[in-house]
Amino acid sequence: MEKRRLGRLEHQSSVLIYGAAALAEVTQDVADRSIQEALDGDLNHFDVAADYGEAELRLGPWMSQIRDRIFLATKTGLRDEEPAWRQINDSLIRLQTDRVDLLQLHAIGDLAELDAATRPEGALSAAIRAQEEGLVGAIGITGHGDQAPATHLEALRRHPFATVLTPLNPVLWRDEAYRSDYQALVDEVRRQDAGLMTIKAVSRRNWPEGSDHSHATWYEPYADQDRITAAVSWVLSHPEVTGLPTAGDVGLLGMLIHAEANRTSVDAAEDELARDGDYSSPFIAMPI
Q1: Domain 3-274 sits in which CATH superfamily?
Q2: H-state helical runs in the chain
Q3: Beta bridge pairs of residue 205
Q4: pLDDT at residue 70 above 80?
Q5: Is the pTM of this model over 0.70?
Q6: Residue 139 DSSP label
Q7: For the segment 152-183, what is each residue's pLDDT rounded down to a tens digit?
Q8: How far apart are CA 272 and CA 169, in angstroms?
């Protein structure tokens, strides 16, 4: 699998990052098979969060075997310093490790969330303390929604975050305002030599009202190989993107690994996705 430099952290991360949100509600046996599938696929960057149900607990038993082989990232979604500090320490216990490589402020998708996390008694203070005490190697930021790129640009003005995780896919790119915000973020990421990861590569649309949810993701994902290959190919054609987390459903991992290994051209990817009349932003009706 292709590796790309994760900004100034210098880690050569697999372009597919194991999205451990997929482990939120699965048994340990299912988790074990999925983690092994990721390792067999040469993924060396694992991304989890305290908010992902049982995911940290599912990853924890593997740490004695793989901790020195992977870049390990987790997240805190809390906004106040002391609760976030406790959550960071609880994550280390659940993950059965004494240190993560990256601690990300989770779900910072608008200025109100950014203000809450970066105020003097906010979660950023807890993350900095954890870094100073050697519990985390670096601090990053993540977020969903149409305002995420602009919010993350402002975040980089407030603090030198080592990584950013922001949304990108072809349907979002078609929106001129979103594209402009994303490109401004890319300029600042490059200036600061941060690592830029992107989410929502294989999102198709919001779940139609009243439909059965065939996957564990909060959005309806693409679930056929041709369109997953197109979506992954398109995102990874962007040289500024260091990697994308795999979708939050264990059943999609194999198709994502296949897609990375069998990428198509940008034109072919765009043509494939343009044939889907239902392709739309997942942020039209985000779950509360």
Answers
A1: NADP-dependent oxidoreductase domain (3.20.20.100)
A2: 28-40, 55-59, 63-66, 81-95, 111-118, 123-132, 148-158, 170-173, 176-192, 225-236, 253-261, 266-274
A3: 220
A4: yes
A5: yes
A6: E
A7: 999 999 999 999 999 999 999 999 999 999 99
A8: 13
